[in-house]
């Protein structure tokens, strides 16, 4: 067996790279986490049981979008997901929008910023009493339900778009959606409340009853960390033309294709 050795120059370059990484630990960690996030996204895209669609296919993003006070925190959608949602809003010009799961109001704010002046964004969240959810939760939902910061001031409250947003308080399992939306079919719904199978099923069934004939639905968190979302949406793929939006954990339904 022949022996192999690393050429001197390569060894020196390797040592230089290691020493640079040790001197710049924050930059190194940031690059590594970006790389890992990209590998993760690609592997999730590859594993998807739902057909993939690019943003171009669903939103024709040839118009500009605006974002306001958008810096994310744990619990928000990613920046790219915010751009996808905002593009869809710009493209479809929905008049009635429904979000299940307000959290700190980041996505509600961007939907308000990008929707027509006469649009209304209704966004539902649980009351501060943590035990208010009546159906089974995913254990990981608790962190976002109990998050102390999210209700201090929702992001849209101080914005010039605040008049478009109406906060609804209640549990999506028991909330009276029919009365609230009796004369307002929903043009765009965003489902991002509790992520258990039971809640995703409940929220989806309720939203589909309210949807305008050409309305659209987005679900967040179709990814392995939330098995209830994956299980429910994959069950519905035989009767709903669901598409996963490439590079995101968003699933999209064009109501006109139902
Ligand atoms: C992941 S956060 C939503 C993030 C937000 N949509 C965004 O884009 O920034 C989930 C939110 O759903 C709310 N939630 C959980 N279960 C709910 C339920 N049964 N009814 C209404 N809201 C619920 C939680 O209180 C939490 O604020």
What does this molecule look like?
The protein is of the alpha/beta class. It has two domains: 7-47; 53-257, 3-Layer(aba) Sandwich (Rossmann fold). Helices cover 39% and strands 16% of the residues. It has helices at 8-23, 25-47, 55-59, 79-92, 106-114, 141-146, 177-180, 197-210, 227-235, and strands at residues 52-53, 96-100, 120-125, 165-169, 186-191, 211-219, 243-245, 251-254. The model has no long low-confidence stretch (mean pLDDT 90). It binds S-adenosylmethionine. S-adenosylmethionine binds at residues 75-77, 99-103, 106-107, 124-126, 133, 141, 144-145, 150, 171-173, 192-194, 199.
Number of domains: 2
Portion of residues in beta strands equals: 15-25%
| SSE run | HHEHHEHEHEHEHEHEE
Structure classification: alpha/beta
- CATH architecture of the largest domain, by name, is 3-Layer(aba) Sandwich
**What's the N-to-C terminus distance?**
65 Å
Classify the helix fraction into a percent range: 25-40%
Oligomer: single chain
How is the CATH topology of the largest domain named?
Answer: Rossmann fold
Please describe the biggest sheet, giving its number of strands, its sense, and whether it closes into a barrel. 8 strands, mixed
User: C-alpha Rg, in Å?
Assistant: 21 Å
Categorize the overall geometry: globular
Strand order in the sheet with the most strands = 1-7-8-6-5-2-3-4
